[in-house]
Write a structure and sequence with these properties.
Number of strands: 9
Shape: elongated
CATH architecture of the largest domain: 3-Layer(aba) Sandwich
Structural class: alpha+beta
Radius of gyration: 27 Å
Order of helices and strands: HHHHHHEHEHEEEEHEEEHH
Low-confidence stretches: 269-286
Number of helices: 11
Helix content: 55-70%
Largest sheet: 7 strands, mixed
Number of domains: 2
Length: 286
């Protein structure tokens, strides 16, 4: 107890805010490591190493402070070096994955490049779905948040890839029905129920539920909506409540490029300020 009392007395000599900041930083690093390793083989290993180090440090400090076991102190220092070497070898896959994630962080890549890659992934998915005549409806959120519609579906937080979009809309999967909502370079929700526009026709063709939903969601927001017809395999784009049918791949790329150019400044602001409420954003637009 005397050793612990002396330790806390020494800690008390420092400014409280310095100690608080140091403890918060240590806690954040440990939390990040545990969160990063969650679900991997390295999670239990990390917990075990931390436990051994903390228990060994406390016990050794008590023993060395009371009985002056200098040889134990020497062996413990060597043990720490061995643990470090073992940890580097044991956590090699996790360390590689962490470095790759840091290298791919958005802070090192411009938002325009990220969104350009996202657009290409969407184009690939839409054209392949159209070729296979698999129905799909993809909503790209802009300034007006679509939170009220996201809540009706299955919420996600996944990077936009062509493979994932094709998997979502593949017939028979749990999420293939209804719409997918994309925010920036992330799929935010799937199986989203959208408002339907009034029944009508374009060029004598009666609109199906997907096309009516595309018109409905773009009438009440500034979103862009892509639709793949299950019957004909044609691609349509809805913007501002109007539907453009039979879009070619080059036209689709042109429209998505324009859409992503509008999103870039919004995408950059998301890292600095929270999004406004849906009602406030719609008020700003008007």
């Amino acid at each position: 107890m005397e050793i612990l009392t002396n330790y806390f007395r020494r800690v008390g000599m420092y400014d409280w805010w310095v100690v608080t900041i140091e403890l918060l930083l240590i806690g954040l690093v440990v939390y990040w490591a545990v969160d990063f390793l969650e679900g991997t083989r390295g999670e239990r290993l990390f917990r075990g190493v931390i436990f051994i180090l903390i228990v060994g440090f406390l016990i050794l400090k008590l023993l060395v402070g009371r009985f002056a076991f200098e040889r134990l102190q020497y062996l413990y220092n060597g043990f720490l070096i061995a643990v470090l070497i073992i940890a580097v070898a044991a956590f090699q896959p996790e360390i590689r994955r962490a470095l790759i994630r840091i290298g791919r962080t958005r802070f090192l890549a411009s938002s325009s490049q990220v969104l350009a890659r996202t657009a290409e992934e969407i184009i690939t998915a839409v054209t392949e779905l159209a070729a296979a005549r698999i129905g799909a409806i993809i909503v790209i959120e802009k300034r007006v948040a679509l939170g009220e519609f996201i809540e009706t579906g299955v919420q996600m937080d996944a990077k936009v890839t062509a493979s994932l979009l094709k998997t979502i809309f593949h017939p028979g999967t749990a999420l293939h029905d209804m719409a997918v909502i994309i925010r920036g370079d992330r799929i935010i929700a799937a199986r989203v129920q959208l408002p339907l526009a009034e029944a009508g026709s374009i060029d004598g063709i009666t609109l199906g539920s997907r096309h009516r939903a595309a018109i409905g969601i773009t009438t009440g927001s500034d979103a862009t909506c892509l639709v793949v017809s299950e019957e004909t395999g044609t691609i349509s784009i809805a913007q501002r409540g109007k539907l453009i049918r039979n879009v070619t791949e080059s036209q689709l790329r042109l429209h998505l490029t324009s859409t992503m150019d509008e999103i870039v400044p919004i995408f950059e602001r998301l890292w600095r300020f929270p999004r406004k409420s849906t009602a406030q954003q719609r008020k700003d637009l008007t």
